Amino acid sequence: MFGGSFNPIHYGHLLLADDLLEILGLDRVLFVPAKHPPHKDPARLAPPEDRLAMVRLATAGHRGFDVSDLELTRPGPSYTVDTLATLAQPGEALFLIVGSETFLDLLSWREPRRVAQLARLVIVPRVGSPFDADSDAAQKVLREIGVEGGFTHVDGRVPDRGVIVSRAASMPISASQIRRRVREGRSVAFRLPPVVAAYIAHHGLYQERAG
């Protein structure tokens, strides 16, 4: 599961997901756009229906990518633990992709221990922000969520235990940067798929500073 606001989805998201398919030997990566992310200001988000549409456009045609509207059809805030509980199936391995900064903030989530029980956590460090697995902050999260096996790197096979730290390809592209460039009337070429850029332009997304 690859959840997020995807505000908007860009090549950084897509490259990371494609790389993890290969590194972890996944059957698929399921993109799950959040309707109301609890930790984000809704005033800065495009409408959830538009963000879902952009994710569908960006992932169309990739055999390893699927998209779910699960969080858009569920009322209330988009809590990851509820989504994982719905997706979890007996006998199937479920992974949750998170950024390193998100992992360090995991204890502020709803039921973080249950999140770690429902899915194997896969940390992808942001470009320019190496993840220090030995830091007090990282070790505290690990203890609190009750995961045994520490932090492990994939070396050709997926480890049986622990939180996975992946070296999946990451690009120095951010959604906030793209939104700013749209507001300023600057080019967003080579940062996100042309169909997504066209959708943003056609629907007038991110034109207002509060949008």
What's the topology here?
Elements: E1 2-4, H1 11-24, E2 29-33, H2 48-59, E3 65-67, H3 70-73, H4 80-87, E4 95-99, H5 100-104, H6 112-118, E5 120-124, H7 136-145, E6 151-153, E7 163-165, H8 175-183, H9 194-203
Parallel strand pairs: 1-2, 2-3, 4-5, 5-7, 6-7
Helix pairs in contact: 2-9, 4-6
CA radius of gyration is 17 Å
User: How would you sum up the major sheet?
Assistant: 4 strands, parallel
Helicity level, as a percent range? Answer: 25-40%
Shape: globular
The proportion of strand residues reads 5-15%
Count up the domains. Answer: 1
CATH fold assignment: Rossmann fold
Total strands? 7
**Relevant CATH superfamily:** HUPs
How far apart are the termini? 27 Å
* Reported CATH architecture: 3-Layer(aba) Sandwich
Could you name the CATH class? Alpha Beta
Strand line-up in the sheet with most strands: 4-5-7-6
Element order: H for helix, E for strand: EHEHEHHEHHEHEEHH
**Count of DSSP H/I helices:** 9
Mean pLDDT: 92
